[in-house]
Write a structure and sequence with these properties.
With about 300 residues, this protein is of the alpha/beta class. It has a domain of about 200 residues: Rossmann fold. It contains ten helices and 14 strands. It has a ten-stranded mixed beta sheet with strand order 1-2-3-14-13-4-7-11-8-12, with helices on one face. It has a two-stranded antiparallel sheet with strand order 5-6. A two-stranded antiparallel ribbon has the order 9-10. Helix 4 packs parallel to helix 5. S-adenosylmethionine binds next to helix 4 and strand 14.
Length: about 300
């Protein structure tokens, strides 16, 4: 009988029997059926994603390769510094507040923004998290005419750190036909990309003087199932290859849809992402990263749970 009912009806019947359940139990009870309907259930599937605490997840394997934390970066960055974590590359795609532009996507954006002063206190800590003199920070911000004045105020905040400009470039958004995306009669402005390191040098000398101007197809907009302000995977892969080697560690302080984490894992890097929105983590980051998880015996996984940061 139960087989012909919708999942919602089946669950309704279950509750009507006076039973209480956790999401995990619900998943066990309704198995495949529930899995199809719920992304959160996919997270509970097998032992591939481990939830280490409220809003904190690691992707499982013998060696942990990814940590995702649901936190406010403004506060949490101090904990990373206290834990003496060091990264080979740090990516900063901040939710900024600029005239004519909010986080790069106007009305589609509904998250809180980081003020210039908050940004300043974040990048002072960013410097402490870099592993070596030539470990690179990549910072992206809108470069349109109306927003450039405000963007410069954020960029100028780097003068309060010991970080020196390594290179400067841009990301031009293309349509799937390879044309520059437009906004009515106007071309969509480029996003600016800045790279900094403590030494002011590229990590790899062969990259010195190499252009950082990239033109890639723009990811789908939210109405087509994409994440607001999502960057192309290939853009992040290009930056990661430019500044790191396989096995090295990358931090994304505002993970969004998890593109940086995806790009890092696709190239064999370890990744650590911070993101304030549980919606972004549950509906975008974790589903996107599921394909990197490996099924390993539970015993091995248990040992990896002792300290979230041991993997770095
Ligand atoms: C510009 S988007 C990042 C997009 C990402 N690079 C991508 O390609 O999908 C900025 C992200 O910062 C998050 N955010 C906003 N305030 C935050 C905070 N205080 N701490 C951590 N994340 C925050 C937003 O939820 C949003 O997902």
């Amino acid at each position: 009988m139960m087989q012909n009912l919708s999942l919602a009806k089946k669950i309704e019947k279950y509750i009507a029997q006076g039973k209480e359940f956790t999401l995990q139990e619900l998943y066990t009870e309704f198995g495949e059926d529930y899995k199809k309907h719920s992304i959160r259930a996919r997270v509970y599937e097998s032992n591939k994603v481990i939830r280490t605490g409220r809003g904190s997840y690691i992707l499982a394997g013998i060696d942990i390769e990814a940590v995702i934390e649901e936190v406010d970066t403004k506060e949490h960055i101090f904990r990373l510094v206290d834990a003496k974590l060091k990264y080979d590359m740090i990516f900063l795609d901040i939710p900024y507040s600029l005239a004519g532009q909010r986080g790069g996507n106007r009305a589609l954006v509904d998250y809180e923004t980081i003020s210039e002063d908050e940004f300043k206190s974040i990048i002072i800590e960013v410097e402490k998290l870099l592993k070596n003199e030539d470990s690179q920070v990549f910072f992206m911000i809108a470069g349109g005419k109306t927003s450039i004045k405000g963007a410069k105020r954020y960029i100028n905040m780097f003068s309060h750190t010991g970080l020196k400009l390594v290179n400067q470039g841009s990301y031009t958004k293309l349509t799937k036909d390879g044309k520059v995306c437009n906004m009515g009669a106007y071309k969509l402005p480029k996003e600016l990309i800045f790279s900094y390191s403590k030494s002011g040098k590229e990590r790899f000398s062969e990259m010195t003087g190499m252009s950082m101007d990239y033109s890639y197809q723009r990811p789908p907009l939210p109405r087509a199932g994409g994440y607001r302000t999502q960057k192309p995977l290939i853009l992040l892969q290009s930056l990661i290859k430019r500044a790191t080697l396989a096995g090295e560690a990358i931090l994304d302080l505002f993970a969004g849809s998890g593109v940086t984490l995806d790009a890092g894992l696709s190239l064999g890097r370890k990744v650590h992402g911070l993101e304030i929105s549980s919606d972004a983590i549950i509906n975008h980051v974790l589903p996107r990263l599921q394909r990197y998880t490996r099924n390993e015996p539970k015993g091995l996984l248990a040992t990896t749970q002792t300290s979230l940061y041991d993997f770095m």
